Every structure is written in structure tokens, then in C-alpha cells.
Amino acid sequence: MPSELLASYAAAKTRFDELLQAPLRPRPHWSSLFSMLKSIGPQTVHERLGAVERQVQDVGITYNVYADPKGLNRPWELDPLPMVIPAQEWADISAGIAQRARLLNAILADIYGPQRLLRDGMIPPSLVFGPGGFVRAAHGTQAPGGVFLHLYAADLARSPDGRWWVLSDRTQAPSGAGYALENRLIVSGVFPQLYREMQVDRLAGFFVSMRSSMARLAPKGDGPTLTVLLTPGPYNETYFEHAMLARYLGFPLVEGGDLIVRDAKVWLKTLEGPRRVHAILRRLDEDFCDPLELRSDSALGVPGLTDCMRRGTVLLANALGTGILESGSLLGFLPALCHHLLGEPLRLPSVATWWCGEPAALQDAFNRFESLVFKPATPAFPFEPVFGQDLSGEDAERFRAKVSEHPERYVAQELVHLSLVPVLEPAHGGQLAARAMSLRVFAAAASDKSYAVMPGGLSRVSARRDVRVVSMQRGGASKDTWVLAPGPVNTSLSLLNRTVGPADLVRTGTSVSSRVAENLFWFGRYSGRSENSARLLRIALNTVLTEPDEDPGATSALTLLCRRVELLAEDEAADHALLEAASLEERPASLAQSLRLMSRAGFTLRDRLSIDHWRMLNRLIQDQAFDRELSLSEALRWLDRVIGGLMTLAGFVLDGMTRDTGWRFLSIGRRLERLSFGCLALQTAMAEGRESDLSWLLGLADSTITYRARYMGSPEWLPVLDLLVLDGNNPRAVMFQVKGIVDYLRRLETHLGPCGCELIEPMLERLQSLDPGTDLDPDGLRLHALIAELGACAFALGERLNERVFSHGDGDRLRSIGA
């Protein structure tokens, strides 16, 4: 059995093999995992692979590879087999990472403070003050508690002799901790018994330390401490992680437009008014954080944020200016700096690095040219890594000349032959294959300038064995990292463990930003619009394409209604176009396009939707990924699934969301769509469907069963109009929509001020004044006029909400998916 499992696993001759210490002999800390794989068989292995893939898709874990046509929908790549590290080896790594974080924090404190290291020649001034490095606006900052570096990450690789080396430092806005946590949640669920038996150390303590440290260092005043997570927005490649961390840590997820600086403090723009922000966990690159003092063309930052950081009125994690340590040009100076600042040797060495800005280092790098890889010394002059071994003759001379022109822009590093780690190969029946691996490890500021190291990390593996640079942007995959605990595992520690007193009880959302409220509103509108289109297309396809001559009046009315909602163009033939309107996203106003817009709005609300809510939304969108026009039978089956999925989403809204301000905006959006569409359907029926069987209208309003239960006969105008217009108990009736909208607006206006209730309240009074005996007539002028005005009112109310509620703060319109 071992030989079968390893049939595709090529032995490592010049690299360290994480799994095997000799042919067919796993290392001791891998033996339990290897034994489990031998015992479960290929079929079970295949099932575990499928389980991981399903969970990634259901939860909607994504990572945006910019060159990938899948874009925001590219699933996160996760190999089910964890990377296993024994306790003693991890103790050495952890101590080295914690020391390195303290060292880098001390370097930052000096660079942005007294600058003794520069005056004493420990760091070349040209290295610090070159382009893309030093942030002058941050000079003189007094970091709370002396902590500039709140979250730190290091990319590690193991060389052929088994030693771990630091390839690079991540000090600006390190990513990956959230993905490491999500990997753990999935993989520990796939191998639960093995996870317990191997005594894998837990990750929760790391996040507890990070959150507690930020709360301790944040300034006080203006109410309870509020920490937010600042994201560039849903188009960032790691937006899923931002939303996931915000939910896990309990921080509101905000964009730059959600924050404003007033009185030298940062405030969150909520619907109830501005709320003081005390700490910001930023996932936005420092250049974009403040258009006043940093990049003036940034639309992602907060004007005045830099001044607030300098004054100490907001804690910024990480502090502005920390990105200077990411260039790699300082790596060669760290051993001496560690002795100077900490009085101890550097425990975890960096891979041999030469900053080419020093003449001696440049010459030495050229002497070792074929064994080095050249990388940018600063983000200001980016380029792809250049491997010396790939260049020869004239190509090598040209590159040497290019480096010599601006040597300060280059660093040269020794090429490390990455260790190999086992992955499961679906193409080979679940056999093991060897792939190159690097490990990202995380540290968070704790107390007394110490650092807590995550007992695990983000293991990244290459797509192919011979890859020299492991990167998710290059198509790599990830692994969970299991650190074996030296003793019993503390399973009681959780980020959710804290005592809540009576004064801490919360019964409503207190930090609903204007942007979140607007996106909830549009999520409601797009979900309502999608359901309306799906129901209309299902009935139209069955009537217009299947039995067009059975009921000419219904065919005429449905065709006209499809044109009025722009599912059909004015002169377009219905047969082919209706199928396109169902499935082709590039077609304007199609159902597929409405679903995609709903998905985009939902994507911005990842921290607001429950896991089950998001899982259903994600399945619904994945189900509509067509690259062709559907046949009639395929389209009808898909429309059934869409309607079922949308009704499930509506159930989550009804039964799974707290009735707070955000929920009311979502519900208003949904009811406005139902009101507008219902009025348009009634107008069309009364104008074009006078002689038709009204079954199509009842089906469109999902009211057929109700009608049959009340009236044991064919549909007639009076009872149909009563059911669809005046019946306040029918969730599809005009009266039901208007009553709900008025109720929600009245509740909102008690603390938000005028929101447009004055537009629709008179409509409700006129509806209630209708007399079924005289007004419920398809020829009735009063009914016709009221239905038309209600449709116009729905549009006007949406515009009023945009003007009075969603345009918040200094008259600037907030960015949103719905805009």
C-alpha cells in the first residue's frame, strides 16, 4: 500500500523532503497522517477531496488572481493534507519570529523617531530615503505603547539542509491570517479524529492576543472603544479574508468612504450619526490611506487620517510607514542590528541577501550571478524576479548593465531550493505528489512589546514541482499548517470568551454605515428584481413558446410585459430572445445580469450575511454559470431552481436576520421592486389581457393556490383584483407592499429624520379608500390612475432614499454597488 500511495511521489534528491526521511519511510511527525491515508483507501480519499472543494465553493472562499478570467469568483485553492510541524521545531521557529518582530518594531521606532541608526551608519541613509521607502508624513509619530508593528508576517522556506530561512518580511498590511483560519476550519472538519489524536495546537489564542492588544493600546473617550477593519473594497484580491476576519474579530468592515475626520478624530458615518473610531486594523496599503498627505489620487483612503495618527487620536495597525521594511534591502543588515538593538544574535536568519546599492555588495552579487535571484529593492520600481541562471551571454551582460545604472533599485538573494511537501493529486486517484512549499508565519503584538506567534500559518504550495517561486497569484494552492502541541491542548480558549454585563447588552445594530445600508437596500432590490424576472420568464416561456395560440390574450400581455421590463427589445421576436433573457449575462436587463448584480451587492455584505445565507447565494450564482444559450427544457428547469433559491434567500431574510435598521432597508428595497413590478403587471393585464384567462396573472403573483382555496372556479376580475390589490394579508398584493414600506419608513424616521414617508403615506390612504364594489373594475379610471401613480411613487421613493439617507457626510455621494 505505501508504494501505491507514493507511485506519483518523486523522491527529492537536492531538496528537503517534508514527508519522507528515507524511501517509503515517513518522518515521525508525519506517521499518523501517512497511516491514515494508507488505511482509508482511494475512494475515501476522493470523497475527502470532494468535501474540501464543496466547502470552499459553498462558503464562497475566493482569491482574486488579477490575470484570471474568473476574477472575483476564483475559488480558493486548498489541499486537504495539512503541513505538519513537530513541537520542538516549532518552538525554535516561534521564538525566532517573535524576536524578529521585536527587532523590526525597534527599527521602525528609530527610523521614524531619533534616527540614531542612520547617524551611526548602521543603516545607509540612501536605503531609507530612496523612492518608495520612508513615509515623511509619519516621522515623529509617537506610537501608543511604542508599538508600530501590530501584525507581522514572515515568508519562510526550508533549504536542502533542513534549516528554515526568512525569504521576506510582511510589515505593511500582512495578508493570510484569515485564510489560515479558514483552512483550519475546513481541514479539521475533514479529518476530525486525526486532528484530535495528533494534538494540534489551536489558533484562537493568537487572535485573542491581537484583539486584546489593540483594545489596550487604543485611545479612550467618546463612548466604548470601537475598532474597525479598513478594506480597499470588494475588488481587492483578499476581500474574502477581510470580511471573514471582520466577522471573527467582531470589527465592523469599512471602506475609506465610511470614515471621516472631524475635530482631529476619526468617525464612522452611521445612519444614526457619526461614531468615534478608536482603532483601525488596516488592510489598505499605506500610500492610499490619506489623499491629503500621501497619494493625492487615492479614492480609497480617509483625508486627514495621517494627522490623527500623529496626534494619537486613533490607533492605526499597522502604523503608516511600516512598509519600508518589506523591500528586502534591509535583510543583510539585520544580524548587526539585532545585536545592537536587542543585545542578542538573530535567531532566525534571512536568506543571504545583497543590497546592490552598496558597491561591494553589487560586485559580490555579480560574482555569484548564476546562483542568485534579483528582486526589486522598493515597490516604486517593480519587476518580475530575474534568475541569474536563466541568463547567459549577451542577455546576462545587458541585465548587468541595467542593474549598474540604478543599483539601489535591486536586491540579490541566494536561490533557495524549496522543500517538497505532499499533496493529494485528484488526477491520479488521490495519490501523493511532491510540490514546492513556503510557509507564511504570523505574529501579533501582545503585552510589554512582546509578540504572540500563531501556532500554525499559511502553507503555500506550487502548482508544479519545478516552480521556483511559490505564489497564490501564480496559481499556487494552500495548506493548513498543523503544529503539534508539546502537551495537552487548551480547547477552552475562544475569541468569544468574555463576560458581558447588563450594561453591555445590545439589541440593535449600532454601527450600520450609510454604505452598508445602501448595499443592503440594493441587495433587496436586486433579489426582488431577480425573482420577478424569473417568474415572468417561466410563465412566458411556458405560454409564449409552448402554447402561444391557447390563450392569445395571455400571450399578448406577457409579451408586452416582457418588453416593459426590458427582457425583450421593442421589435425583437420572442422565441429566441426569451431564452437569451434567461441565461445570457451580457444581455442587458437579463435575469442572469440581475443575479450577478445581486451577487455583487451580496459580496460587499460578506460580514453581514450568515454562512447559510451566503452559501445559498453562492450556489445560486454558480448554478447560472452558462457559456451558451439554454434549450427550452433546460431553461425551465433552471428557472425552477432559481425561484427555489431566491425563495430560500427570502426565508433567510425573514427568519435569520435581526429586525434592525439594515434589515429594514433590505426589506424596503425588496418591497419596492415587488410594488413596481406588481403595478406594471396589473397595468398590462388591464390594458392587454382583458379577454385572457387570468391564471397567468395569478401565477406571476404566486397567488394561484390562495385564489383556488377561496374561489372554487375560474379566475374573474373582481376577486383577482381584490386579491392582488387590496388584500393586506397577501404578501404579493399591492396593499401588503405599501403597508410594509410605510411601517418601515415610520420606524426609520424616528431616529433618521425624513426618509420619504410623506410620498407614500397618501398612496396608502387612497388604497384604503378604494371600494371593491365600484373601484375594482379593469375599466375603472380611479384604479388605473392609482396603480400608475403607485408605480411612479416606487421610483420616486428610491430616489428620495438615495438623496436623504445614502448621501451621507458633506454632501458627497457614497460609493456603492447600487449606485
Number of strands: 21
The low-confidence runs, each spanning 5 or more residues with pLDDT under 50, are 503-507, 808-819
Shape descriptor: globular
Give helix % range.
40-55%
* Biggest sheet descriptor: 8 strands, mixed
- The rounded distance between the terminal residues' Cα atoms is 59 Å
Number of helices: 26
Fraction in beta strands: 5-15%
Provide the fold topology.
Blueprint (H helix, E strand, L loop, with lengths): L1 H4 L14 E3 L2 E2 L4 H29 L23 E3 L1 H25 L4 H4 L5 H5 L21 E8 L5 E7 L6 H14 L1 H6 L6 H14 L9 E4 L8 H11 L3 E2 L4 E4 L2 E6 L2 E5 L1 E4 L22 H7 L3 E3 L16 H9 L10 E3 L3 H9 L4 E5 L9 E2 L5 H13 L4 E5 L5 E6 L5 E15 L5 E3 L4 E4 L15 E7 L30 H33 L5 H13 L9 H10 L7 H13 L7 H13 L8 H25 L4 H28 L6 H6 L3 H7 L6 H10 L7 H19 L4 H12 L12 H26 L13
Helix pairs in contact: 3-11, 6-9, 14-15, 14-16, 14-17, 14-19, 14-20, 15-20, 17-18, 18-19, 20-24, 20-26, 24-25, 25-26
